[in-house]
Design brief:
38% helix, 161 residues
Length: 161
């Protein structure tokens, strides 16, 4: 992991940059998933609008974090208090530098502080190998969700660190 990665809780002031990170990650980094279908891309991005992000930041049952690499915002993640990790997006030009791993480690740590013994997520094809490297395993058969391949996954979290 790059030593200059810094993960911090997102704030309302980060709403715009979070939106831009998510959109770029979806448009460029997830092309395998949406196959550049403009309807799939627009629907996916619409589910993560600035209005949605503002509501997420105001919800105490959600935790959004943001990754800074060399003082630039390059990634964002979100977890719910029930153990669900609902997003992890990294700017494509910053892939494979430890940003996603750092975001996920921070989200899992937040879940542990809330007593979660398990983390669950739904992976796209783009993210599947990444999540497997982090210890996530299939929890159900693959399915089609919003016109894209999805794989439910889970990971047991260490209750004592």
């Amino acid at each position: 992991m790059d030593a200059s990665i810094y993960i911090c809780p997102a704030t309302a002031a980060d709403t715009g940059i979070i939106s831009r990170i998510v959109e770029r990650s979806i448009r460029v980094g997830c092309a395998l998933d949406h196959r550049n279908d403009p309807h799939l891309v627009d629907a996916w991005i619409r589910q993560q609008s600035t209005e949605h992000i503002s509501a997420w930041l105001a919800d105490p049952q959600r935790y959004l974090n943001i990754a800074l690499l060399q003082d630039r915002p390059v990634g964002v993640g979100m977890a719910l208090a029930n153990g669900d990790i609902t997003l992890c997006h990294v700017q494509p030009e910053w892939f494979r530098r430890g940003v996603g791993r750092a975001l996920m480690t921070d989200l899992e740590g937040w879940l542990l502080t809330r007593g979660s013994a398990r983390s669950v997520l739904t992976s796209t094809r783009t993210g599947e190998a990444f999540y497997r490297r982090l210890g996530y395993r299939e929890s159900a058969p693959p399915l089609i969700r919003h016109g894209m391949h999805s794989l439910p996954m889970h990971k047991s979290l260490p209750l004592s660190a």
